Write a sequence for this structure.
């Protein structure tokens, strides 16, 4: 109840909270969220709570939320994870990922085009890039990450792809390659556009795949950064991480190593968080949270749920039954490591053979991991011998029939010659 009062109160003082994340919004937009609507979302179904033998997850004020195991991609918590929402500035995760993939140009200087600068309203997050101002690509990436700078995102887009349009196309193709199912990007910064949307599941997958890049991870997990004076600016620009869980002591128990926050009046609050603790690596995504306080309260509950209820487990090849297809027998090899509900027995898991490998699944179908397989033929030596005997028999039979036919033909020819004589 105390948390509910804090969240409802935050809606009345929302302008103060928004300043904390460096964004602006009219009070009229925020007041459209009523207490009844907030309560209705909070009481909404948590999809993963319906999974057989799965630990009940907490209720959250946000419309969509997910916890994903970084290693296996297994979904540990799910609430409306395939519902489409505006992502706001968590979009910049994709922008930063693409901007870090050619490390040879990170120290190169670039300037944003006039179009790129004018495309960013000055009442949104920016670092006030001037026309013709030159900064390093890595400067722009850190500005996008730590200050959520929309103008820096446009500079990254032009540096990587030559134009913002080509960069958006690259964002969309990369999202599909990563496995996103319901995501469409229309810009590099996350400003609202009807063709710019995502889901909690998709952004968990995008973040998981992006974190495989050490160059991206370095920017994503950075706490502070300084841009030195430029050809248009005599002063340093100093940035610190806006994701409060990365630097506030009360969140130390969550092991937060990186993350990105977002807000627009249409998207409400969004948050992506990467946590590491006790050998577990979790990704938490929150979409459309009603208030600044709630997006962090929900994330805290979900990370605590993931750490508390799941243990790293291993299934070895000898624990998996062989799979037969016709005359072929597939045998698992190696082992699979994944997070498993503390209350689960491994024998409750489902093993499915697909695409030449054994998938380890929960009863609801979530793939926890997989083991490679070797294949052997079930054809016995006696079957081979019998096949050879049959072949020899038919060859002899064919030779006999052929010889008999030739004998008849030869006999007929002999008769004809005797008659002529």
């Amino acid at each position: 109840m105390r948390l509910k009062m804090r969240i409802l109160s935050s809606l009345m003082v929302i302008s103060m909270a928004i300043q904390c994340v460096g964004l602006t919004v009219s009070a009229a937009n925020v007041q459209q969220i009523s207490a009844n609507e907030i309560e209705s979302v909070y009481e909404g179904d948590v999809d993963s709570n319906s999974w057989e033998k799965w630990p009940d997850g907490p209720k959250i004020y946000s419309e969509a939320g997910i916890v994903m195991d970084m290693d296996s991609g297994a979904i540990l918590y799910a609430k409306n994870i395939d519902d489409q929402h505006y992502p706001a500035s968590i979009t910049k995760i994709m922008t930063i990922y693409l901007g870090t993939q050619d490390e040879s140009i990170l120290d190169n200087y670039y300037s944003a085009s006039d179009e790129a600068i004018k495309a960013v309203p000055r009442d949104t997050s920016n670092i006030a890039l001037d026309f013709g101002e030159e900064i390093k690509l890595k400067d722009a990436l850190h500005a996008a990450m730590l200050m959520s700078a929309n103008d820096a995102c446009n500079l990254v887009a032009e540096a990587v792809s030559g134009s913002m349009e080509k960069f958006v196309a690259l964002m969309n193709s990369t999202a599909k390659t990563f496995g996103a199912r319901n995501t469409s990007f229309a810009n590099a910064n996350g400003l609202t556009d009807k063709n710019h949307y995502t889901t909690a599941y998709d952004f968990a997958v995008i973040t998981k795949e992006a974190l495989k890049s050490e160059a991206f991870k370095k920017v994503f997990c950075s706490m502070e950064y300084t841009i030195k004076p430029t050809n248009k600016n005599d002063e340093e620009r100093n940035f610190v991480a806006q994701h409060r869980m990365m630097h506030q002591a009360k969140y130390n128990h969550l092991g937060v190593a990186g993350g990105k926050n977002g807000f627009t009046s249409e998207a409400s609050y969004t948050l992506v968080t990467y946590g590491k603790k006790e050998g577990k690596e979790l990704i938490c995504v929150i979409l459309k949270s009603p208030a600044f306080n709630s997006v962090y309260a929900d994330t805290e509950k979900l990370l605590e749920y993931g750490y508390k209820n799941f243990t790293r487990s291993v299934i070895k090849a000898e624990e998996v039954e062989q799979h037969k297809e016709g005359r072929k027998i597939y045998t698992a090899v190696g082992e699979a490591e994944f997070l498993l509900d503390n209350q689960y027995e491994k024998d409750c898991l489902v093993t499915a053979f697909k695409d030449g490998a054994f998938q380890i699944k929960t009863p609801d179908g979530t793939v926890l991991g997989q083991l490679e397989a070797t294949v052997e033929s079930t054809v016995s030596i006696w079957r081979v011998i019998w096949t050879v005997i049959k072949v020899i028999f038919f060859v002899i039979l064919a030779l006999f029939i052929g010889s008999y036919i030739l004998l008849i033909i030869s006999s007929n020819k002999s008769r004809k010659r005797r008659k002529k004589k």
Summary: Residues 178 and 206 are 6 Å apart (CA to CA). The chain has a mean pLDDT of 87. The first helix runs from residue 2 to 12. The chain is about 35% helix and 25% strand.
